[in-house]
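User: Please look over both lines:
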Amino acid sequence: MRNRIFGVLAIAILAGGGLAYGTYNMMNNQPVKTVTTPTQPVVVAAADLSLGSELRKEDLTVVNFPAGQAPEGAFPRVTDVVGRGVISPLVKNEVVIPAKLASKEAGSGLPPVIPEGMRALSVRVNEVIGVAGYVLPGSRVDVLATANPTNQQTDITTKLILSNVQVVTAGTRIEQDQDKGKPMQVTVVTLLVYPDQAERLALASTEGKIQLALRNPLDQSAPETPGVKPAILLGAVKAPAQKSASTSRRAAAGPVTQSAPAAAPLPTVEIIRGDKRTAEVIR
């Protein structure tokens, strides 16, 4: 009886092993089906590329994207973009698209970064004017000017002349350090302004003194101030009434020119000669 049980068990093991072996061979002998997905070549950055860089062959590489999945405008060949300037920073493996590059005729460096209709104007700064080195490329600043229009001590005026101005370079750098927010001592900063604002800034820096006020980049307001003179600063003269917050601040996406305060009317004396009346201005 015991021998019969062992015999049946042995037959079952042999049958199961044979079936498993046959199944394994059958699966291995089936042809492997390969599915190919159509692709397209796309140029990407081979390393981090900073603003103003000129693209070289070693800065770029080509990868395959699924057909139709590449960003619009992506370049298929490295030769299509070699020599063009970068106007927006690129990170490694980022797809190179036309919006990130200057035109072929524009070249590289700072000029292609300047938007149409604007100008880049450099001003000399020191540690105080440059807000202790925290005025970095990409920062937003207000420009204050101190000047004396009449050479009289009492007429010295400090006035906010430009608001929400972008800093495009600090020294020779057109990008912040990797450690963002780190102070950087420079002697020259370059501001992005409109032509009429460039005139005001040039006059202020040559005929008076300028000061940069660092501002929050999310703050788009443009405060209107009347300016301040020594007599107002020391309380000898009452300061002119400020406009309400709703009217003194307005949205400002770009640099804003601050209007000069209206000049106070000069005192006059009325002189009567017979039937004639004249008004003489006292200067």
The longest strand covers residues 157-170. Confidence is low (pLDDT under 50) at residues 244-252. The chain has two domains: 39-113, 114-257. DSSP finds four helices and ten strands in the chain.
